[in-house]
Design goal:
Number of helices: 21
Oligomer: single chain
CATH topology of the largest domain: 2-enoyl-CoA Hydratase, Chain A, domain 1
Radius of gyration: 26 Å
Low-confidence stretches: none
Helix content: 25-40%
Shape: elongated
Structural class: alpha/beta
CATH architecture of the largest domain: Alpha-Beta Complex
Strand content: 15-25%
CATH superfamily of the largest domain: 2-enoyl-CoA Hydratase, Chain A, domain 1
Number of strands: 17
Length: about 525
C-alpha cells in the first residue's frame, strides 16, 4: 500500500473513536462527540491534534483486543478568538471515556505545554472514570493530572466543561480548576454514584438529583455555569474566555469597541427604595455602571445573597462582587463568603481589577451558621480581599454594618478607593439595635418605651446612619452622587492601572480553609 495513503487511512480511522454505532448512540443522547466538541470550541481550521495514534499498552481482561487510536481522548491546541488555547476532550464512545495511564499521559502532555507556553487549558469531560481493568496505574494517571492542575493553578486559567458523567476520582481534576461548566440533563458529577449511596446510606436518589447541573449550581456551588446543551455550553466557554488573560503575567484583552447607554446614568438615582428596609436588585446598580451587555454572572444560582461576575468598564475587564439586598437582605453567610472569596482570588491571580458594591447589614446569625463555621468561612472572604494586590474600588450604596463592613473591601484591608453614596449608612450596627444597647436604661425608665426608643433611634441615625463620619476620618475617600459613580470608577481604575503591591516574602499564606 502507498505509505501516504496508509497515513490518510489511519487518520480517518482515528477520527471514528469507538465506531459509527457508538457515535450514533452519542448523538441520540443529545450529545456531540469528543471531536465535534473540539472543532466547535476552537476557531475554524485552527485545531492541531497531538497524539492521534496513541494506544494503551494494557493486556489484562481482554484489553489487548480493545485498542482504539487516541485511547479515548482527543488532545491538541488551537485558537479561540485568535488566542492560543490547549484542549483535551474525552471520548465516551471509546470504552466509556475511561481513563487509562496512556489517556492520562496525553492530558498531562497538553497541560505541560499550556503552562510552558502560558495559555489556558480547557478540559471537556465525558468519562465513566478510571479504567478498572488497568487497576492502580489508572489511579496514578489521575494523580498525575491532579498534580498538574494544582501546579498550574494561578499560572494559567483552567476551565472544566462537564459534558457527560464525571464520577469518582474524575471529579477532583475539575474541582481543582478555576471554573466548571455543566450541561442540563446530560452531565453529572459525584464522588459516589446512586448505587453506592443506596448501599451505604439507604437513600434513593437519581444521578440528576445527586450530581446534576442543577444540584451543583444551586446546592453545592460546585457548578459555576449551566447550559441547556453541548452547543450552548461551548458558546459560554468561548465568551467567558474573552474576559480572561492568557496567563498570570498578562492582562485581559482590552476592547475599544463598547457602548454605554447614558440613560442608565439617570435611572441609577431611582434604583434604591426610599425605605431603607426594602430590598432592591443590586444587579440593576451593576448594569447602570458597566458597559452595555457586558456582565457575565458567575455562580448565578448559588448563594444568591452575593452577586459575582465579570464585566467591562470602557472595554476593560473588571471583577464585580456585590451584596444582594434582594436575597436574605444581602447578609454574608457561609456560602456567600465562600463564593465571594473564590471569585476574588481568581481575579487577583489573573490581574483583574475588583469593583465591590456594598450593601450589607452584617453576618447571618444563628446556631446553624455558627456550628457550621461561619467564623472560618467568613474569614475566607476577608483573607481573599486582604491578600489581593490588584486595583480595588468599593462603592457603598446603603448599609455597611459591623464586621461585614470591614470584610467587604474596606480601606483598612487594602482597598485603593472607597466611595459612598449619600444614602450610605456606615456604622457598627443598625440604628434600632444600637439604640437598644446604648440607651437601654433611658428607654427602660421612660413612661413610653416605644416612643423613647424611636427618639433615641433617630438620634443615633442622625449621628451615624450616614457616610460623613467615615468621610471625616478618611475611611471613605469621597461621598458621591449615584450618577457620578461610573465616571469615578473609570478615572479611579485608570489611575490604578500601574499599581504595584507585593506581598511579604513567604512560601504561601495559610488561608482559613
Amino acid at each position: 500500500m502507498d505509505k501516504n495513503q496508509h497515513l490518510l487511512e489511519k487518520r480517518e480511522s482515528s477520527k471514528l473513536g469507538g465506531g459509527e454505532a457508538r457515535i450514533k448512540r452519542q448523538h441520540e443522547q443529545g450529545k456531540l462527540t469528543a471531536r465535534e466538541r473540539v472543532l466547535l470550541l476552537l476557531d475554524e481550521g485552527s485545531f492541531q491534534e497531538i497524539g492521534a495514534f496513541v494506544e494503551h499498552r494494557s493486556t489484562y481482561f481482554g484489553l489487548d483486543k480493545m485498542k482504539f487510536p487516541g485511547d479515548g481522548v482527543v488532545t491538541g491546541y488551537g485558537t479561540i478568538h485568535g488566542r492560543l488555547i490547549y484542549v483535551f476532550s474525552q471520548d465516551f464512545t471509546v470504552l466509556g471515556g475511561s481513563l487509562s495511564k496512556t489517556h492520562a499521559d496525553k492530558i498531562c502532555r497538553i497541560m505541560d505545554l499550556a503552562v510552558q507556553n502560558g495559555a489556558p487549558v480547557i478540559g471537556l469531560n465525558d468519562s465513566g472514570g478510571a479504567r478498572i481493568q488497568e487497576g492502580v496505574v489508572s489511579l496514578a494517571g489521575y494523580a498525575d493530572i491532579f498534580f498538574r492542575n494544582t501546579r498550574a493553578s494561578g499560572v494559567i486559567p483552567q476551565l472544566s466543561v462537564i459534558m457527560g458523567p464525571c464520577a469518582g476520582g474524575a471529579v477532583y481534576s475539575p474541582a481543582l480548576t478555576d471554573f466548571i461548566f455543566m450541561v442540563e440533563d446530560t452531565s453529572y458529577m459525584f464522588v459516589t454514584g446512586p448505587n453506592v449511596v443506596k448501599t451505604v446510606t439507604h437513600e434513593e436518589v437519581t444521578s440528576e438529583d445527586l450530581g446534576g447541573a442543577k444540584a451543583h449550581a444551586e446546592k453545592s456551588g460546585v457548578n459555576h455555569f449551566t447550559a441547556s446543551n453541548d452547543v450552548e455550553v461551548i458558546k459560554q466557554v468561548r465568551d467567558i474566555l474573552t474576559y480572561m488573560p492568557q496567563n498570570a503575567q498578562e492582562l485581559a484583552p482590552h476592547t475599544t469597541q463598547f457602548s454605554f447607554t447614558e440613560a442608565k446614568n439617570k435611572a441609577i438615582q431611582s434604583i434604591l427604595p426610599d425605605n431603607v428596609n426594602l430590598p432592591y436588585d443590586i444587579r440593576k446598580v451593576v448594569e447602570s455602571l458597566i458597559d452595555d451587555d457586558s456582565f457575565r454572572e458567575v455562580h448565578e444560582d448559588f448563594a444568591k445573597n452575593i452577586v459575582v461576575g465579570f464585566a467591562r468598564l470602557e472595554g476593560r475587564t473588571i471583577g464585580v462582587v456585590a451584596n444582594q439586598p434582594a436575597a436574605l437582605a444581602g447578609v454574608l453567610d457561609i456560602d456567600s463568603s465562600r463564593k465571594g472569596a473564590r471569585f476574588v482570588r481568581f481575579c487577583d491571580s489573573f490581574n483583574i481589577p475588583l469593583l465591590v458594591i456594598e450593601d450589607v447589614p452584617g453576618f447571618l446569625p444563628g446556631t446553624d451558621q455558627e456550628w457550621r463555621g461561619i467564623i472560618s468561612h467568613g474569614a475566607k472572604l476577608l483573607y481573599a480581599f486582604a491578600e489581593a494586590t490588584v486595583p480595588r474600588i468599593t462603592v457603598i450604596t446603603r448599609k455597611a454594618y459591623g464586621g461585614a463592613f470591614d470584610v467587604m473591601n474596606s480601606k483598612s484591608i487594602g482597598a485603593d478607593l472607597n466611595f459612598a453614596w449619600p444614602t450610605a449608612e456606615i456604622a457598627v450596627m443598625g440604628a434600632k439595635g444600637a439604640a437598644e444597647i446604648i440607651f437601654k436604661r433611658e428607654i427602660a425608665a421612660a413612661d413610653d418605651h416605644e416612643a423613647k426608643l424611636k427618639e433615641k433611634e433617630a438620634e443615633y441615625a442622625e449621628m451615624f446612619a450616614n457616610p460623613y463620619r467615615a468621610a471625616e476620618r478618611g475611611i471613605i475617600d469621597e461621598v458621591i452622587l449615584p450618577e457620578e459613580t461610573r465616571q469615578k470608577l473609570i478615572v479611579g481604575f485608570k489611575m490604578l492601572e500601574n499599581k504595584v503591591d507585593t506581598l511579604p516574602k513567604k512560601k504561601h499564606g495559610n488561608i482559613p480553609l
